[in-house]
Amino acid sequence: xxxxxxxxxxxxxxxxxxxxxxxxxxxxxxxxxxxxxxxxxxxxxxxxxxxxxxxxxxxxxxxxxxxxxxxxxxxxxxxxxxxxxxxxxxxxxxxxxxxxxxxxxxxxxxxxxxxxxxxxxxxxxxxxxxxxxxxxxxxxxxxxxxxxxxxxxxxxxxxxxxxxxxxxxxxxxxxxxxxxxxxxxxxxxxxxxxxxxxxxxxxxxxxxxxxxxxxxxxxxxxxxxxxxxxxxxxxxxxxxxxxxxxxxxxxxxxxxxxxxxxxxxxxxxxxxxxxxxxxxxxxxxxxxxxxxxxxxxxxxxxxxxxxxxxxxxxxxxxxxxxxxxxxxxxxxxxxxxxxxxxxxxxxxxxxxxxxxxxxxxxxxxxxxxxxxxxxxxxxxxxxxxxxxxxxxxxxxxxxxxxxxxxxxxxxxxxxxxxxxxxxxxxxxxxxxxxxxxxxxxxxxxxxxxxxxxxxxxxxxxxxxxxxxxxxxxxxxxxxxxxxx
Length: 484
Hints:
Layout lengths: L1 H22 L11 H6 L4 H12 L4 H5 L3 E6 L5 H15 L2 E6 L5 H9 L7 E4 L2 H7 L10 H4 L8 E3 L2 E6 L3 E8 H8 L17 H13 L1 H4 L3 E3 L10 H7 L1 H9 L7 H7 L8 H13 L13 H9 L3 E7 L2 H7 L10 E4 L11 E6 L3 E4 L5 H16 L1 H10 L18 H10 L4 E4 L8 H15 L5 H16 L2
Parallel strand pairs: 1-2, 7-8, 10-12
Antiparallel strand pairs: 3-11, 4-5, 5-11, 6-8, 6-9, 6-10
Helix pairs in contact: 12-21, 13-14, 16-17, 18-19, 21-22
């Protein structure tokens, strides 16, 4: 009796386990089937195989739809409202909420550090190229097998390490000196101008640019402007055009001189020290901005990028340094007088030998990364959102018409690429017989290095620091930040 009773208990236990195995739903994190159940229940083989196949699919709609919310930490305040609209449309279409949080200007790294430590961290965040990846590699999911990566028109643009792909560039951008061709044409029409320059095509080096700018300053009243250049924004958090974008120029040339590398970013990443060899070239153009501006040098510490763009949009200035993203800012200023057909680019000339063949600064520091620390189904839902944004008709319309991105993806037809004047001019410059300047600031050692640079520039503008002191701060802060 005892043996029969024990045998009955064993049979009941096996049947109970089998019933749980057959009825239980797989968790999305599983990668294998229950081998015991497979051996015991041969009739369930096809069902188990189907389940495994579904789990291996990256775009499993059922699993993705189980996710209620993903979290995108945005880098650019100027396009935050557009992302809010995109998020609303995506939720209406898919049921997945996209929480969009935008870091304040100049605070992205600090914000990211704070947010990833929370119980509900960002699932999509942004890297500023190889330097950003070096800081956040423990949080970056390998995107090598995603559709998003396969969409790239140039896969070499991605941030990679070994066989892995950890950052996907989502926009190629360009920057330089933006000018209002209507004002420039007015200058060239002056019969008493001090230069013989007759068109913008003749301005292809610093010496010529300086001569034209200084002559225009002497004729401000005739031209109806308050300064040739818009205000040089030097208030806290608003210095990025100078400590990042303009700083790219001298360091691009310094690292280009390092023949041990064929890439200025790699040369920069390998440089534990710099000499700031082209600091005088930086000073050339920076002084030209300061001395021919709408705003007196002593007041620049209170000026923002928005102030600068308003100067240009309202016709107070003929030129401003910025990128193709500036068109949306210019066109949205109330009272804007700059027509789309009059807004153009020229390179940032600094007096470097051979700069006649220099183009705009073209590249990207904008890479999407997926948080490897969140649940796999949330990772997949986050990837699905980005794939929707850059492949669906609605998503691509937002990218082109509202975000104004020149997206480096094969999913965009010619008709779907940006039509704004600055984006067009970047593309036109890329087709000229010139060499684009690589965005070498991707190799800058830290945000702190940029901030030291920017603060020193403000003190220089206020005459409280000499240029030699600024130069030494740049050299010292590079070395100290690299040593950390």
